[in-house]
Design brief:
11 strands, binds adenosine-5'-triphosphate, Ribosomal Protein S5, domain 2, 7-stranded mixed β-sheet, 10 helices, alpha+beta, Alpha-Beta Plaits, 288 residues, 4-stranded antiparallel β-sheet, globular, single chain
């Protein structure tokens, strides 16, 4: 059995530049992996089948699962005779804006590259990943990166300054397509992506906090006011800065002093079931 870690991501920035003729949005976002991860187990099968099992009651265990799609894509592309049993220990909240499904797919690609002795480069795995979903290439590399195009073009960036990340997920699932559909491109306040890149290059925590921005935040907050309330609470409990990740509904807050982590965590726990306190991972995945 081979185990692979599939970490969640947060968006430090998320900008939408325009809508493309192919109907995708041209995006520009800075993402970074955090130490909240699913665990993917991969067990060789000699009968050629792909079988998927998940500890979570809510993710599909058939072809709709992105990890299943990753295994099938590798198997078909490289004509692999063996099969695999994929086991997902789910820790990342589902439909939360944390790319849980994409990360499971990416970890499956990285793990099967080993298990099936394919020796594919990480760039090839990322290219394959783009066929499964726009966030999969980023998750193949992990670490911190600028993602452009529909999210699949990845440029590595330095790891963020050391800090804590508090995450709170209201009890709702958000459809990414629905949120993008509610975006009015004429009327958005763009985040300062360049300034965020500078904060990473200069390892400037305060500038990073000041540069957080997500154009989808106001759309999701209008649809689900509880997201705005969680963000306000987080700020009230004392995080340095807070933002919604991806299309939401998870909100994260940053803290650079460990002594305040418990207070914010416990405060939020009072009215939100799913709260996590984790570190940024920052560096790239090592298992290619
Ligand atoms: P993103 O941030 O990339 O938009 P997300 O965190 O909002 O992703 P996911 O947790 O990846 O959303 O799940 C979105 C949908 O994908 C779920 O409704 C679920 O049914 C489906 N899905 C398919 N495979 C998986 C998987 N391995 N883990 C979680 N969800 C999966």
């Amino acid at each position: 059995m081979l185990y692979v870690k599939a970490p969640a991501k947060i968006n430090l920035t998320l900008d939408v530049l325009y809508k493309r003729p192919d109907n995708y949005h041209e995006v520009e976002m800075i993402m970074t992996t955090i130490d909240l991860a699913d665990r993917i187990g991969l067990q060789q099968r000699m009968d050629g089948k792909i079988v998927l099992q998940s500890s979570s009651g809510i993710v599909p265990e058939d072809e709709r699962n992105l990890a299943y799609q990753a295994a099938k894509l590798l198997k078909n592309t490289y004509n692999i005779q063996e099969g695999v049993t994929v086991t997902i220990d789910k820790e990342i909240p589902v439909a939360a804006g944390l790319a849980g499904g994409s990360s499971d797919a990416a970890a499956t690609l990285r793990g099967l590259n080993k298990l099936w002795n394919l020796n594919l480069s990480i760039d090839t795995l990322a290219e394959l990943g783009a066929k499964i979903g726009s966030d999969v290439p980023f998750c193949v590399y992990g670490g911190t990166a600028l993602a452009t195009g529909r999210g699949e073009k990845i440029k590595p960036l330095p790891a963020p300054p050391n800090c804590w990340v508090i995450l709170a997920k209201p009890k709702i699932g958000v459809s990414t397509a629905h949120v993008y559909g509610g975006l009015n491109l004429e009327n958005i306040v763009h985040p300062n992506t360049e300034q965020m890149i500078r904060s990473l290059k200069e390892n400037d925590y305060n500038l990073m906090c000041k540069s957080l921005g997500n154009v989808l935040e106001s759309v999701t907050c209008n649809l689900y006011p509880e997201v705005a309330i969680i963000k306000e609470q987080m700020i009230r409990f004392g995080v340095d800065a807070a933002l919604m990740s991806g299309s939401g509904p998870t909100v994260f807050g940053l803290l650079n002093s460990e002594s305040r982590v418990n207070r914010v965590y416990n405060g939020l726990k009072g009215f939100c079931e799913e709260v996590y306190a984790v570190r940024m991972l920052g560096g790239r995945n090592t298992l290619a």
